[in-house]
Structures are given as C-alpha cells and as structure tokens.
Amino acid sequence: MSDHRIPRTESAYSYPLLIKQLLHCPLVSCPEQEIIYRDQLRFTYRDLHERVCRLANALLSMGVKAGDTVAVMDWDSHRYLECFFAVPMIGAVLHTVNVKLSSEQILYTIDHAEDNVLLVHRDFVPIIEQIKGRIATVDHYILLNDGGEPLTSSVPFSSEYEQWLAEASPCAEFGDFDENTRATTFYTTGTTGMPKGVYFSHRQLVLHTMAVLAALGTPQQQGRIHQGDVYMPITPMFHVHAWGLPYVATALGVKQVYPGRYSPEMLLELIDHEQVTFSHCVPTILHMLFKSPHIDNVDLSRWKVIIGGAAMSRALCAEALQRGIDIFTGYGMSETCPILSLAHLDEEMLALDQTAQAEIRCKTGRTMPLVDVRVVNDKMQEVPRDGQSSGEIVVRAPWLTQGYLKDTRNSENLWQGGYLHTGDVAVRDNRGYLKITDRTKDVIKSGGEWISSLELEDIFSHHPAVAEVAVIAQPDEKWGERPLALVVLKEGLETPPGKRDLLALLHEYTETGVISKQVVLTRVKFVDGIDKTSVGKTDKRTLRDKHLG
Ligand code: AMP
Predict the structure, then answer these.
(1) Cis previous bond, 338, omega within 30
(2) Is this model's pTM higher than 0.85 or not?
(3) Which entry of 196, 255, 363, 445 is annotated as an active-site residue?
(4) Which of 147, 282, 474, 525 could bond 448 through an S-S bridge, CB–CB 3.0 to 4.6 Å?
(5) Backbone angles phi, psi at 488, to 5 degrees
(6) Which of these is catalytic: 303, 415, 450, 479?
(7) Alpha-carbon distance 335 to 309, whole Å?
(8) Which CATH number fits domain 200-439: 3.30.70.100, 3.40.50.12780, 3.40.190.10, 3.90.320.10?
C-alpha cells in the first residue's frame, strides 16, 4: 500500500504544539505591553519572559525534571501566570490546587497527583500546617508572599518566591518534546465521590487557545477580544486555567491585570484605574460587584464579560445590560478544558430590545470551532434541534480530558460510546443555541463551587432522628443554587430535632476539614415523604417540582 502522508524533507522542522510557542508573537510584537498585579506590581512581557526563564531554572536547580509535578496554591496572580508557562515548558506538570476544597480533600489531591514541589501563598499556609505531616510526596515548599509581616510557620519552606527567582539565571532555552505530554492537571468535585483529576496536554492547551481566539476574535461586533483589550480574570486560576483565557490573552499580547484575592473594592478599582475591558466570572461574583457601594462610581460601559460555570439569570443579565456591560454566556466544564460554546449575538439580534437580547445572552451558546456537541437521548440518538426536545450534551473536541487520572472506571463512564458525557441536559434551537435545562449529576453548584448532594444526604442520615433525606438544588439569586435538604423525621419522637440541630451536624464536618465550608449554605425543610421512581430511586425531578414551586 502506498504511503499518502505528506513527504517530509529531513531537515524540515516538525513544529510541535507546545505551550512555549504561544510566547513567540507577543514577545516580538509587544514586548513592552504590561502585566499588572493588583496595586502592587507592573512589569512588561519582556520581564514576563525573563521571570518565566528564572522560574524554570529555579525549578530545574531544585531537581525538578520532566514528568514531575509542581503544585500551586495562590490567588489570581502574575506568579500563577508565570507557572502556567514555566512549569509545562520544562516538561513538568502543573497542578493547580483547588484551594476551596476542604483540607482533607486538598491532602487527597496533593497525594493523588504526586506533587513534588508546592508553591503556597501565605494565606494558605495554615491549611498546609494542618496536613503537612501526612503529605508523602512533596520535597520542597516555596512561599508566595505579597510582602507584609515576616511569616513564622512550621512548614519547611526552601525559599520565598521572589528571592528564589532572583537567585536563578534569567536565560533559558526550552527544548522540544512530544506535544502530547501532560502539561496541567487539577481536580474537579463536579462528580460524586472523591475529587477527580483531569489533565491536558500541550497540544490540547494550544488548540484550545487557538479555538478560543477564533471564537472570540471573529464575531462581527459583540463579545470580541482584540489587541486593544485589557484583560482581567475573575475566575480562579486553579479552575481550568481560569478558563484558558490567560493563555489567550498572552498569545494575543494584551495588557493583563491580575486581581489577587477578590474583593469588590479592588476589582472595581482595577476595572476603573486600569481600564479593564475583558473579564469572565461566575454569576455570584458579578452579583457581589453589583451589591458593592462603589459600583455606581465606575463606568462599566467598555466592559465585556463572559459568564459561565453556572446559568446566568435574566435579572443579572438585565442589570448588566443596563450598566452598559456587554455580557454573554460561556459553557464548559473542568473535563473540557473548558470552553465549548459561547452565546454571541448576530447583527440582527443586537437590534432587539434588551429583554429579547437577554434571552439569547443567557442561553448556553453556540459551539466553538472544532467542537462536536450532540444533544442525545439515552440511546445516543440526536434529538431534534427544535428548542424543545431535550437530551444530554455529549461532546468531542481536540481538548477534552482523555479520562480521570488513575481512575479507569470513572474514565470509562465519562467516555461511554466515544463521546464525553457532560451530565448536562439541554435543548438546542434551529440556530444552534444550546440551553441547559437540567443536570443528571447529583451535585449542586453554589457560587461556582460544587457540593455533593449524596455526601450531604449521607451526613444527615446519620442523625438518629432522621428516617429519610434527599438533597436537591434550590435556585438562588446570589449563589445560583443552594442545597435544600428534604428531611423525613422518624415517627413518635419525644423531642424532634429542629432545623438548627440538623444543620449543626454539618459544622462538625466542616470544622474537621472533611467537607468544604460551602455546605453552610444548606437549608432544611421537613417533609412527610420522599418521592421515588418506578425502580425505587429518589425521584429528584418530582421533588424539585413539588418543593421548589
Ligand atoms: P466545572 O467542572 O466546575 O467547571 O463545572 C461545569 C458544570 O457547570 C457544567 O457541567 C454545568 O453543569 C455547569 N455550567 C457551566 N457553565 C454553565 C452555563 N453557562 N450554564 C449552566 N450551567 C453551566
């Protein structure tokens, strides 16, 4: 059989899609462009390159080699951006630690990812002090400090980040390697059971960056990112690389602003002072900004914001539009790198009034280039694109996690039938807009963080007075969703417990770091019975219809 592959001259360079390649253009075309950290630091892309080289050299001199894992616990910062590049560029894996997890879950993820080096912001040092005796794999700890008082800690820090960088060489050559090398990993709790590791290769991250650039760069008018933009993430950088946008912003060479720990005042000040024009966040953050007493002092009419991670309510969208914000939805998940679709508006849609526009901006959007989304029934057949027929979103794209780390069983479930199963139920209309209507996964999303309903049910069921319990997601304007525990008490109790007694149970678990503090949002409702499906499972759909009316 003849070989149909393209002929290759022996000396021709076979260009691997590596993260380092994203730096070529900005370093040549805009080396003086700025990167800003809060009101504390500003430097140029030229400096960024030097700092990335220093970080890479510092890691190498510490003994980090290709295949090792370097973990980070930080707020959104220039340091995180440096790690996004330097760690994968030496062939190591960047583990972006989800700092919102409980200390026990953080310990689990550090062990499971086999982290060798851990960079820790001083705010998270107490977490590490709590678990350090049980961390088996980490050889070196580096302190990330924003100045302030010297830190006394029992964590054996090898160095402080700035000092560590200052001692390293500013020059480095980054060699080529296989583009399918794992670049990043992190853990999602958007499934039941322990957090699950997802992972992405250099090739996947580069292709995701290119596709997002195409998707955000090509709309006729609305929701565009371009070279004149000023970018500031307001989603945590540990969460799917802040939706991959720091890679996009860097490849594009725009001014970037990193806000550190979120506070409404600092965010608004940065938007105002640095003239931020492009951001992304979960609805709860925007809600928080709108409640700030300073909001009316800031002109938001140049601001473009992608809302994702949870459905955007029409009320939030309407308020944003009134403030002149170009707001629209993005959709994806940890497993999908993440972006799959964006709710851009065509020219004729922009001519509609704000109410009609909000309807479209709140949809889950149209797919990005290369993304093959199907909405399927339980036989994996596509349902009609009529805006009515619903089914699960399943997907293929070049940048989806190829499984869960060291977890074959759940990986097989994720990839049943050769499509990644999102666990999201949606309809799609004849113009290709998806709209999520439900979820098959037993998890609740509050303020962008997952809470497992099964875990909560397990805790409540341990109370001696509880006969039965089911936890469902209650829509909430501020948090998106809050857990609502429907509790059936045992009959004939002499002193039945009150709601507070049951909620006190949760505190015991949060105090000991077993579950995330997010569960304090739970509400309790006493009910007479829990509805069941024909096969005897808790019928959450009926429960929702009945109790959330
Ligand atoms: P995570 O893995 O934490 O990023 O969460 C991903 C999940 O958040 C998705 O599977 C959806 O259930 C939900 N989600 C993300 N974006 C949206 C959106 N635009 N509208 C509704 N739900 C969303």
Answers:
(1) yes
(2) yes
(3) 445
(4) 282
(5) -105, 125
(6) 450
(7) 12
(8) 3.40.50.12780
